[in-house]
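Below is a filled-in request sheet from our internal design queue. Each sheet records the structural input a requester submitted and the sequence that came back. We keep these sheets so that new team members can see what a complete request looks like end to end.

REQUESTER: design group, bay 2
PRIORITY: normal
MODE: inverse folding
CHAIN LENGTH: 589
BACKBONE (tokenized):
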């Protein structure tokens, strides 16, 4: 590329011009006028059809199992027919509660192409949490691995809408463990349920509109149980287009195209190191990878040494997911023993990244670009993306929003339902980040009050404190929501606090996130005991572990003899509490 590099604005204008792939038009979505991608696929059925064009390329790899795009498509088509045969109709909820396995991806595509609402359940949840997700969503079908089956079996009677449980074997070479039959719920192995797979099979013909529901990911907030965030087909394909747009804009500006040793464009091979039950894994990785025709390589569990071996064996071009993953790979004592020259991208988001991480990635992977991003479950994954020289220059930014996304900085005291022109603007203005665009979900499942609070006239109130610089790059400064990000998993303080308060010896408590070298943050509980009571930290940990997932259990427990700091309205001053804990830990280190 000759001449000065294109600016963000110049590249965006060139790519979104009339007649271009990323042309933008205006449309009404959920009653709000907004910008949309003019040439986005209509729905995920179209995306699956696109994937068939990659034919003999590897689509999914898990240990010694490989599926081409053609094989994957035919299995999905057959599985979709089986679901219809078992009474699943458009709008029914089909849940998946399993670790990353090829059948997870197949179940997802089979559900969305028949118009079902796929409900990815957090596989690390406790039995109580898993049961809640299935009951709240009203799922009639559940795809589950053997480990989750054992957790859920005692709760079957508490799930009156669940009719069919399809069990995925971790090792398909042996018979799947189904356990004793249930009087009402049919429990069947995945292979038996799938049956024969015709070589010319196609999915059932179901009409799917852009704004039909497609997914329900569970998220939470400052109060109560997790909420089902309902995403539409438009939401999901908007994210797909945004990922492609941001990557191609970065290539246009830098003039860099990844080539193999023969000078040909390098085929994508992505190491999946984040769970598919998160929006990042499912929407930003699984769907975009299928559309791009890349090879998606799965691991039983993430371990840096195993990941390095897979990078070498499968010639992985991209990995990441969350900053913790990148740091663990870089810090592995045998890093230099592996051939990582195939890596051209280390991409992550979902958690704060140390500013020095981009420098370390450039030093360790000379052929790679580091990239970061920002998004929420409520925005169907990505909203902002940053990579290459921009990331080097602005390592604390998550990048500019994609062109179909509007963002605004809103002060805490603002009581309107959409940003007004008189709001303060400028690179030093801090406030809550509001987002509007076709990637924003339509609302929360059966939660009209929560939906009305978080979504107004198409704008999502993110709860994140941010600023926007002169070029439109977004910087997340703090989280207004009471949330901790531990190794890429969202931990909602209020949920952990509710369990701790159930302990009979606890008078008061607060849960905060404190910095951790590799996990980003760890969960710390600060507790005031009832007069005369004596409790060990281990007892609090055991108590929480009985009710919540392992990642939600506090790793630090502090006891106070004085009251927790509160403002005049009685709210715990968590930032003050967190700062005092960090300062105390630094003094004693």
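RETURNED SEQUENCE:
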């Amino acid at each position: 590329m000759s001449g000065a590099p294109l600016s963000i604005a110049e590249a965006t204008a060139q790519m979104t011009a009339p007649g271009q792939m990323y042309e933008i038009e205006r449309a009404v979505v959920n009653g709000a006028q907004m910008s949309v991608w003019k040439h986005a696929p209509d729905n995920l059925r179209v995306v699956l059809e696109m994937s068939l064009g990659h034919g003999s390329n590897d689509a999914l790899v898990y240990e010694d199992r490989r599926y081409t795009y053609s094989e994957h498509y035919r299995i999905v088509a057959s599985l979709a027919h089986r679901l219809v045969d078992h009474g699943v109709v458009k709008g029914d909820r089909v849940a998946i509660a399993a670790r990353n396995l090829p059948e997870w991806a197949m179940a997802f595509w089979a559900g969305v192409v028949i118009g079902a609402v796929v409900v990815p359940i957090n596989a690390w949840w406790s039995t109580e949490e898993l049961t809640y997700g299935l009951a709240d969503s009203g799922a009639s079908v559940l795809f589950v691995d053997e480990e989750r089956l054992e957790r859920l079996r005692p709760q079957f009677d508490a799930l009156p809408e669940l009719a069919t449980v399809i069990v995925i074997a971790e090792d398909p070479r042996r018979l799947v463990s189904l356990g004793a039959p249930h009087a009402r719920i049919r429990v069947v192995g995945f292979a038996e349920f799938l049956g024969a797979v015709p070589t010319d099979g196609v999915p059932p013909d179901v009409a799917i509109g852009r704004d039909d529901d497609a997914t329900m990911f569970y998220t939470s907030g400052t109060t109560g149980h997790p909420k089902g965030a309902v995403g539409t087909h438009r939401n999901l394909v908007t994210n797909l287009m945004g990922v492609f747009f941001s990557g191609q804009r970065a290539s246009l500006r830098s003039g860099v195209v990844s080539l193999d040793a023969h000078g040909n464009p390098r085929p994508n091979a992505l190491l999946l190191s984040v769970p598919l039950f998160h929006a990042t894994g499912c929407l930003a990785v699984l769907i975009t990878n299928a559309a791009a025709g890349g090879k998606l390589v799965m691991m039983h569990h993430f371990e840096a040494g195993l990941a390095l071996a897979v990078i070498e064996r499968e010639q992985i071009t991209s990995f990441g997911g969350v900053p913790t993953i990148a740091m663990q790979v870089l810090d592995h004592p045998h890093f230099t023993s592996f051939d990582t020259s195939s890596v051209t991208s280390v991409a992550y988001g979902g958690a704060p990244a140390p500013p020095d991480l981009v420098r370390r990635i450039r030093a360790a992977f000379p052929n790679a670009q580091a990239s970061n991003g920002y998004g929420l479950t409520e925005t169907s994954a990505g909203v902002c993306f940053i990579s290459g020289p921009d990331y080097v220059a602005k390592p604390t930014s998550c990048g500019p929003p994609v062109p179909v996304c509007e963002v605004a900085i809103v002060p805490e005291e603002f009581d309107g339902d959409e940003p007004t022109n008189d709001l303060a603007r400028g690179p030093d203005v801090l406030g809550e980040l509001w987002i509007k665009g076709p990637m924003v979900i339509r609302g929360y499942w059966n939660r009209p009050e929560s939906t009305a609070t978080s979504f107004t006239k198409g704008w999502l109130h993110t709860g994140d404190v941010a600023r926007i610089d002169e070029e439109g790059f977004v910087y997340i400064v703090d989280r207004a929501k009471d949330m901790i990000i531990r190794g890429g998993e969202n931990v909602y303080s209020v949920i952990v606090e509710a369990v701790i308060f159930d302990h009979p010896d606890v008078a008061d408590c607060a849960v905060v996130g404190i910095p951790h070298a590799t996990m980003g943050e760890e969960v710390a509980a600060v507790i005031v005991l009832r007069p005369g009571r004596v409790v060990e930290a281990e007892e609090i940990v055991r108590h929480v572990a009985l009710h919540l997932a392992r990642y939600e259990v506090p790793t630090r427990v502090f006891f106070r003899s004085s009251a927790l700091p509160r403002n005049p309205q009685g709210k715990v001053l968590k930032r003050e509490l967190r700062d005092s804990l960090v300062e105390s830990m630094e003094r004693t280190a």
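SHEET NOTES:
- The mean pLDDT is 92.
- The two ends are 52 Å apart (CA to CA).
FILED BY: M.R.
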